């Protein structure tokens, strides 16, 4: 299944996957992932990671589940806030936070992505 180009969701910053439950469509934002994180991908609307590349765990699993992913975004867990609206465009490697009025506040471009999506963090 190819990644979806755009999705609407909420962002949730996760530092430890053991005690977290993502609501369907939430954007998973984390430093990195490994196989222990895979259950969170079942309901995630997208993935944004601080580290990784085109063949990293997060990108491979996101591709398998057909959800957008952007990886290799240093400091993203500190830059974005829980509940913040964002656009995750994995095809272009762009994460765009939005102002409360819907205007894009900033843009983070980066390589190492899969698919695309729009969502809330």
Automatic annotation (TrEMBL):
Region (Disordered): 96-121
GO molecular function: transferase activity, transferring phosphorus-containing groups
Residue ranges annotated for the PEP-utilising enzyme mobile domain, each copy included: 22-93
Amino acid composition bias (Basic and acidic residues), ranges on this chain: 100-112
Coiled coil: none
Domain of life: Bacteria
InterPro entries: PEP-util_enz_mobile_dom, PEP_Utilizing_Enz, Phosphohistidine_dom_sf
Protein name: PEP-utilising enzyme mobile domain-containing protein
